[in-house]
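Consortium newsletter contribution from the modelling node. Members have asked for a concrete example of what our holo predictions look like. Here is one, prepared for the adenosine-5'-diphosphate complex that several groups have been discussing at recent meetings.
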Amino acid sequence: MFNSEQLLISVLFKLFIYRIAIVKNILMSDKEILIEVTGLKKSYKVTSKNKLEVLKGINLKIYKEEIAAVIGKSGAGKSTLLHILGTLDRPDSGKVFFDGKNIFDQKEKQIAEFRSKMIGFIFQFHHLLPEFTAIENVMIASMIAGDPDREKAESLLTEVGLQDRINHKPSELSGGEAQRVAIARALINSPKLILADEPTGNLDSENADFVIELIFKLRRKYNQTFIIVTHNEEFSKKCDTIIKLHDGKTVDN
Ligand code: ADP
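And here is the predicted structure:
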């Protein structure tokens, strides 16, 4: 039997849970969708007769300013999905809406323009150009987009803690520093979306932790959306959402 004190505690507890549910609903309903993927399929030709179905009908939504982790076993199709979201590859069928616009409905030239302005890429290996300094590597992306901006490149390198390394070439940087240059490069055109494929995959745990913290700090500062393929469990657990791929589909966690 409940005494009156237990009853009061139980009522207060239920009210508390109810209030959390209301606040959560309000926060969820406020979120705006940046990307919506519907029925996305992709296969690769293996032989003249066989094809490998990698993505078998992906549906997902990514909200603005969210950091989403894409996880799954090797070969599950994580990079394939990321490449399609980044318009580096086309799906066989299905749609990708970005801010409500069907991206693959456009001509190649418009898609390339969209990619250079709206999307920043970070890869597992930094892919910096060896002949150029850190600041030049960061600036190149803004030059390609038609708006070279040295001042911004310098401020981004300062942001990632490399103010003393701006004139160093990639061979004069550590792996962690080179990856931080690559992050600054991804941000130079103020993209709405940053796609990262195993950004900590090639780093020791100290540098990996630095990059993880940096990504969260940059999101807070620039309100950008990140989709990150990662095997780093500690990282994925910190993300706002986890997209788990298995057998060509997303699975609920
Ligand atoms: P993950 O990133 O999850 O490890 P990927 O998306 O890289 O997986 O690859 C998924 C599957 O598609 C793998 O079996 C891979 O070998 C195959 N694959 C990826 N790209 C190609 C390609 N361009 N041609 C043929 N097969 C590919």
